[in-house]
Amino acid sequence: RSRVVPAPDFVSAFLDAEPDRSQSPPDALRAHFATRFGAAPPAELFAAVDLPAHLRVHIVVVDAAGQELASGRDLAALREQLGQAAQLSFAGVDPAFERTGIVRWDFGDLPELLHIERDGRRLTGYPALVDAGDSVSLVLLDTAEAAAEATRGGVLRLMRRELRDAIGRFEKGGAGFAAAALQFKATIATDALLADVLGAALDRALLADDPLPRNAQSFAEGVKRARTRLPAVSEGAFRLLHTVAAEVQALNLRLGTVPKAQARVAAEVRAQRDALVYPGFFGATRWAQLQHLPRYLKGLDRRLAKLAERPDRDARHAEAVAGLWRQFAERAERNRREGRREPELDEYRWLLEELRVSLFAQELKTPFPVSFKRLSKAWSDLPR
Q1: 223, 243, 213: which is closest to 161 by C-alpha?
Q2: Tens digits of per-residue pLDDT, 234-261?
């Protein structure tokens, strides 16, 4: 603290250095500390600071007539409150652009953004293809993120129409689906399970990590790639589902043999199982991570099998991991409430699963070294 006085001079030097405005203020300050002093305060120091209200930016949102719609210091809350109003500002602004009932790519290019003049003000809209069931609609949305998410669904819908014949062979499930559906019957409806697995497989086969098409040619090229990938990806998805179901069955059988004296551990294992496998889990789990689900489930089974050998060691590790899971779950819930997506937190969540394997089922091995120290660093590196 003594190194940044007088404070006004330090603040002026920070601003004169033209900090990276894509960073959060704490991250930009830490970078300035590192440049000026060769070291920076830890990120958690800034996270622990609760700024008084008068130091937070006060945001006022006005309409085209300059009338105030809402104000406050919580940007996420304002976005949630006025998101629909922002979208309505584009309604009917360019009837020639917006269309419904689209069943093929016959509308020319899809620009990433459009500038619109309304009442002397310049608005920026983001064109999007929105899935409407059997067709798609062409609309303007208020953020690039919302447009990209919607357009992915719209492109998938158009591709599914183009590949109806190829997709048809998987609409009743692939090899092993019937047995897997029977295993999950008590917790996941068969129709929902099929839709979940097929939807995830189609998302991967049809688009994968390809950039979203912006014109008819790139869309046609994408359809061609998708037709080639579809059989292998779909068959692999149903095989993986069968393997996951088998591991769940084995784990459930093991849970049925756990004595009452170990009820606490059994409850923990059930909760961890249900955080991995639940209605919609196949589509909600990142594709690259799905392949690891059988190992994570097997790790839970091995933990129960070895519990009697070192119950004290199990309890010690379980308490430490539970603390990490709680902080993850609290942040994930906050993100859900605020409509925020945080890929880094998803990475942290899977690091936690690898840590569990390394602690409770070392014989299953992890694809990379993992430790409490690595988890601590990953948490401190999360955006603040």
Answers
A1: 223
A2: 999 999 999 999 999 999 999 999 999 8
